[in-house]
UniProtKB/TrEMBL annotation:
It comes from Rhypophila decipiens. Its main location: membrane. This is Major facilitator superfamily domain-containing protein. GO terms for molecular function: transmembrane transporter activity. It is found in: Membrane.
Amino acid sequence: MTRDILYRTEERKGVPGLGGLGTSYSDLYGPLIRPRKVTKCSTCPTLNDNLPICLDRRLNRKFDLHILPWLFGIWLFSFIDRSNIGNAKIAGLPESLSITTGTSFNVALLVFYIPYILVDVPSNLLLKRLRAGIFLPSLITAWGIVCTCMGFIKSYAGLIVCRLLLGMFEGGILGGVIIYLAMFYRRHQMLYRSGLFYCAAPLSGAFGGLLAGALGQVRYGGYERWPWIFFIEGAITVIFGITCFFFMPDTPAMAKFLTDEEKVWASRRMRLDASGSTAIDVDQEKFDWRWARMALRAPQMWFCAAIWFFLLVPLYSFSLFLPSIIAGMGYTSTVAQLFTVPPNMAGFLVVIATAHYSDKVKNRGFFIVGGTILGIAGYIMLLASDANSVKYAGTFLIAAGVFQASPMLMGWVANNLSPHYVRAVGVGVVISVANCSAFIGTFIYIQRDAPKYTLGHSMSLAALVLNLLLTLAQMIYLRWENTQRALGHRDDRLLDDENVHRLGHRHPLFRYTL
């Protein structure tokens, strides 16, 4: 059957066919998604199916104002509370708990990731069922309480228990935030927003370093130095988490800051952006094991999982051990805390800039490749030079390269999996697999290798080389698959009348983001 005959057959049956062959979205989805008439200025340009650009921009501004600040704060406090143990280490925690030798401290870092990995997929599936505006604030409040309690620990066993609980409550955050963003923003508007919230990670290193530098000097009430890092930072997280309950909407249709007209169009533009992968709103989607199987059979999901795995080896080790790396250059505890600020600020600025341009050119892979090359150069500087100035400059390159690649991967996997429950399962699996890298990242910087940390730097360098090769391989695969769809080699999928609305990202109209 030719492409034209196939199209006419699908059109006659009222099934979404090959809309790229002279058919508008109205023709494809008219009775399903026709909203009330919207009032707009006569000169306002439109997007697909007469969606006014002015209205699209107004929706984005409202979402940016009412959603992004809370997601930014969630990720900021998540990274601070996850990595402040690195600051506590050089503020006396190992000495207080008698874990100054061996790998006991590394084990404490590692156990965080066991529940973190296990809860990710279940947490993503529960996000919509338990209401995102309640579920995400509940998680941040719970981990803030745990972080606060870490200041009271008196034994190594207490440290392990707190790290396990922290991992359990933080495990659903990253995947939950990615899926939450995908409910509100179109595919090629999402990466910039992912960057805006993820830039909180390097900022947490800068802010956490300044805060830890001050709190690490406090001696009061029988608690000296490191407990106050957990007390104050944990308490701030709890207050922020409780505040989130009152302001985060569950879905666009439940956003109180939108008018009725805006709610209709917010839902409609997401259906249009799905390019045939779904014909219903996220509020109406129900879980089906078909979606789970579709996610697990998607090559792009496994590519992203492998790429993120090797990216997180240097990312996590850098976040956790940067104070130790700088202290290894011969600086005192307080100075080392403060010296973590500039590299993290560099990472913060690069994340925002690259996220903006990535959405502008609708490409993720090239930015990951560029960031990986920067990171490789940074680790070579740490390994090859004995000069502190060169080593410190290398940390800037690592921060700039590694931090920006992570939100790129978030956007990449979310862009190329559809609809909601396929994305929920896929993102959960990707994050779970990727975070297994923690079993490597937390054990490559050990005390006996100080101050050069040759093993840690070498392992991080090797991980980035593999990351580079896998990123290039995924880009080649996605370009090939898009070409096959453009040539009509996937049109046979439209012959199944009953399941044509359930093709997800396998729909011939759907194009992968490179």
